[in-house]
What we know:
The chain is α/β, with parallel strands linked by helices. It has helices spanning 14-27, 39-44, 46-49, 73-85, 100-112, 126-132, 170-187, 189-193, 206-223, 238-250, 259-276, 282-295, 303-312, 343-354, and strands spanning 4-6, 9-13, 32-38, 59-64, 92-98, 118-123, 137-142, 145-152, 157-160, 325-329, 335-340.
Amino acid sequence: xxxxxxxxxxxHFNEKAYExxxxxxxxNKYSNLFIIVDSNTNEFxxxxxxxxxxxxxxxxxxxxxxxxxxxxxxxxxQVWNVLTELGADRKTLxxxxxxGVVTDLGGFxxxxxxxxxxxxxIPTTLLxxxxxxxxxxxxxxxxxxxxxxxxxNVPTMVLIDTQYLETVPQNEMRSGLAEMLxxxxxxxxxxxxxxxxxxxxxxxxxxxxxxRSVEIKNEIVTQDxxxxxxxxxxxxxxxxxxxxxxxxxxxxxxxxxxxxxxxxAGMILESYISMSKELINENEYSEIKSSLKSIxxxxxxxxxxxxxxxxxxxxxxxxxYGNIQFALIEGIGKIKINQSVENELILNAFADYxx
Length: 355
């Protein structure tokens, strides 16, 4: 597959990826190389990756415990300390090998260590391939609040090797699929329609579906790298989805949701709001709702859950001057950003989701 040129960095695929990586390392005279992994990718992905690496540089592995709960500033401090103790300097290269938690945190660590060192993302989950690895967003959570601390800083390159997906559980694959479905809903109706009958989908062509998803995100981000305008389209389903994800993360009596599970619910809720504002028609909403509910189990909301979820909306990064801003779809394949939504409409959306 042909490489995709993002804003000042390339995204390489499969067999071309490692050739590009080794050429880059050999040309740039790095002092040493650090690979950041979590406990899962250390076990399942690092053994696949290391044989492709052709370098005489000293290689150090930094591992932290897997899970969103560890995507915080405390983990960053531990990684910064290890980098310091092991002699990392301004000419160090950091490779982030893992899912969205690793690429988000590793990119933030690299962007801030000694005011910034080169880093490369090698996403190993479907979600990180089609979402977290593209666009230069790096950061960590603040308590239960998603991605509150971070920077926009692009990697030197991104390498996507779909063989890593063989190690990914089915629920994690579904989580990544949510972002692919979102890309169709906000940008490409034809792409969305390819997923309407998953049983008929030829997964031999899944590499091409991933490629198109990366392409869509890159096309949007290239127009608006710092999220002042059209990049906000990528937040469809995330305003409510992130609030739901954060609420379930902070409550011990709730089962923690995968990102895509929360975003799928967010897309149903925000599609209902789009219909209520006459941006999509009832048939379009019905298609979206039935399609997503056929893939993702319903999230069970108690009456006492809704108000604290709404309270979390105020922390959404798209908010301006204290107003909650939604990105809503205007027909399948189109988006309308900076939409204010009253609480009553959100409550109606939750009521409809449960019906």
